[in-house]
Amino acid sequence: MAKLNIIMVSFVVLVVASTCIPSLAVEENEPKKLWDQCVVKISPKCALNIISQVFGNGVVSIPCCQELVQEGKDCHDTLIKYIADRPSLIGNESKYLQKRDEVWAHCVSVSKALSPA
């Protein structure tokens, strides 16, 4: 649980820093334009909800699944990969990327089920 709290706090600090100091948003070799576009597409509450499932034992709510699908797969993949690449998490990166893909598939399924036919 402590590791999940550190991840969530790190993400919030990263988002705040990236909006206040754009040069801190991403490392030079990352797709800065995509990062900047993605970080504003999802609410902080849903971002934390998704992070808690990918990096912990949380469950993504239905409204957050809908936000995630609207955000798009490229954004979801970019944001989770960015967090999973942190030195404290890199050892379990493949597990986190698998969970990222599972969350995406689940949310697409939920969103399709809720869409009007």
TrEMBL record:
InterPro entries membership: Prolamin-like
Domain spans labelled Prolamin-like: 37-108
A Pfam family per the record: Prolamin_like
Signal peptide: 1-25
Keywords: Signal
PANTHER family named among the record's database cross-references: BIFUNCTIONAL INHIBITOR/LIPID-TRANSFER PROTEIN/SEED STORAGE 2S ALBUMIN SUPERFAMILY PROTEIN-RELATED, BIFUNCTIONAL INHIBITOR_LIPID-TRANSFER PROTEIN_SEED STORAGE 2S ALBUMIN SUPERFAMILY PROTEIN-RELATED
Protein name as catalogued: Prolamin-like domain-containing protein
Organism the protein comes from: Brassica campestris
